[in-house]
Specification:
The protein is of the alpha/beta class and 414 residues long. The protein has four domains: 165 residues, MoaB/Mog-like domain (Molybdenum Cofactor Biosythetic Enzyme, Chain A); 56 residues, Molybdopterin biosynthesis moea protein, domain 2; 88 residues, Beta Complex (Molybdopterin biosynthesis moeA protein, domain 3), CATH 2.170.190.11; 74 residues, Beta-clip (Beta Barrel). 18% of the residues lie in helices and 31% in strands. The protein has a six-stranded mixed β-sheet with strand order 7-4-6-5-9-8. A six-stranded mixed β-sheet has the order 16-13-17-21-20-18, sandwiched between helices. Bound molecules: adenosine monophosphate (AMP) and magnesium ion (MG).
Length: 414
């Protein structure tokens, strides 16, 4: 049985980001469709930001030398030679004794070097009295102060969100190349499983994993390929898994990976030419986790995760192992590795000390400090109900049986 750390390292080594040198791994999208996508190329702009010296205030563009000594008692009077709204190209060079009326974002006129905000002025027809001496170059946004043309603007492998999309718009890149969405096949195995709309016979269980996994895959920006419920029959399972590996980048099956008499997944993976890298992990819940690769059927290796069937186990193993793998595979250059926070535990947390134990609950902020509150009710891997509205997993390391209330605990944010 592998430790969590070893299993994680094996999985991360198996996963490589999609190769952007292959056209089929790239999509061109409009910026309005770019939210959540991963940029497949670096971006360099030939524009400076700001594009021009411009005013940060509504006020007057002046020559600093003219106004450096003025005050309310000794105002300086300047002649207004031009009105410069935003979007207008100034026509007149400001001479000594002159000023231009200017508005926020408008281009600085030649000759002027400083803005006086209008609150510090008094307008008298075509003249303005400057009542307070500004600082030199005050309220001027200098060309290229935020970004200089030719420098790296955005790096490949970043997730595009509001700020990045706005930057691409400002840099006049209305279409960009992003990594294609990964296809993730999802199947459930078990004779006892039924769909949510089937009447339940004694002993039957609704296939909830398929719904949980589809939602998680969508959250990762990947495309779920739903393959339904497969009976615990070797032939049916073999056909379904073979179909899955031929049509997806990643396959997630749940159920059938323990050591029960009806658990065939490992045998089938091997019979289809897959190589098994992980068979079980010292994690609770989630011990019977299978990870395999299938050699490229077309241009890529398919990654196979056989998740345990218990709903709590399927979710915990997804969050802990599958999510980072999908993020790395998708092209995300950084930030795909799981991160842990330290929080004060609001309860005693217990484990048998033999496996790394994950306890679900809520991470809260109280007076600026993190606190972890365990979800009420059973922490059984068969219990799905108290996972509702949880946002974090607390971790009890191997060898530790108790984390006392009030002590620090490592928490993994979902
Ligand atoms: P298995 O891993 O097949 O031994 O299943 C372990 C437990 O998880 C059993 O109680 C199954 O009924 C349950 N289970 C398996 N697959 C699912 C599923 N897709 N949705 C909900 N529960 C499941
Ligand atoms: Mg089963």
């Amino acid at each position: 049985m592998l430790s969590v750390r070893d299993a994680e390292n094996i999985i991360f080594d198996l996963v490589q980001p999609l190769n952007t040198e292959k056209d089929e791994n790239i999509e061109i999208v409009d910026l309005f469709d770019a939210n959540g996508r991963i940029l497949a190329h670096s971006v360099v702009s030939n524009l400076d930001f700001p594009h021009w010296d411009n005013s940060a205030m509504d006020g007057y563009a002046v020559r600093y030398a003219d106004v450096q000594e003025c005050s309310r008692d000794k105002p300086v009077n300047l002649q207004i030679v031009e009105d410069i709204p935003a979007g207008y190209q100034p026509q007149i060079t400001i001479q000594p004794g002159q000023a231009a009326r200017i508005f926020t974002g408008a281009v600085m006129p030649q000759g002027a070097d400083t803005i006086v905000m209008q609150e510090n002025t008094r307008r008298e027809e075509n003249r303005v009295a400057i009542l307070t001496a500004p600082k030199p170059e005050e309220f001027v946004r200098k060309r290229a102060n935020y970004y200089q043309a030719g420098n790296p603007l955005l790096a490949a492998g970043i997730e595009l969100k509001a700020a990045e999309i706005a930057i691409l718009a400002a840099a006049q890149c209305p279409q960009i190349k992003v990594y294609r969405k990964l296809k993730v096949a999802i199947l459930s195995s078990g004779d006892e499983l039924v769909t949510p709309n089937q009447p339940l016979q004694p002993g039957q269980i609704v296939d909830s994993n398929q719904y949980a996994l589809a939602a998680l895959v969508q959250q990762m920006g990947a495309e779920p390929l739903m393959l339904g419920i497969i009976k615990d029959e070797p032939e049916a399972l073999k056909e379904a898994i073979s179909n899955a590996i031929n049509n997806a980048d990643i396959v997630l099956s749940s159920g059938g990976v323990s050591v029960g008499d009806y658990d065939y997944v490992e045998q089938i993976i091997e019979s289809l030419g897959g190589e098994i890298h992980v068979r079980s992990v010292a994690v609770k819940p989630g011990k019977p986790l299978t990870v395999a690769t299938f050699p490229s059927t077309s241009s890529f290796t398919t990654l196979y995760f056989g998740l345990p069937g218990n709903p709590g186990s399927a979710l915990v193993t997804f969050w802990r192992f599958v999510k980072p793998a999908i993020q790395k595979f998708s092209g995300l250059a950084e930030g795909w590795k799981p991160e842990f926070l330290q929080a004060e535990s609001l309860h005693d947390l217990r484990s048998n000390g033999k496996r790394e134990t994950y306890i679900w609950g809520n991470l809260k902020v109280n007076n600026g400090a993190y606190q972890f509150q365990v979800a009420g009710g059973s922490q059984s891997s068969g219990n799905l109900i108290n996972l509702a509205q949880t946002n974090a997993l607390a971790v009890i390391p191997v060898g530790q049986k108790l984390i006392n209330k009030g002590e620090k605990v490592q928490v993994f944010l979902l």
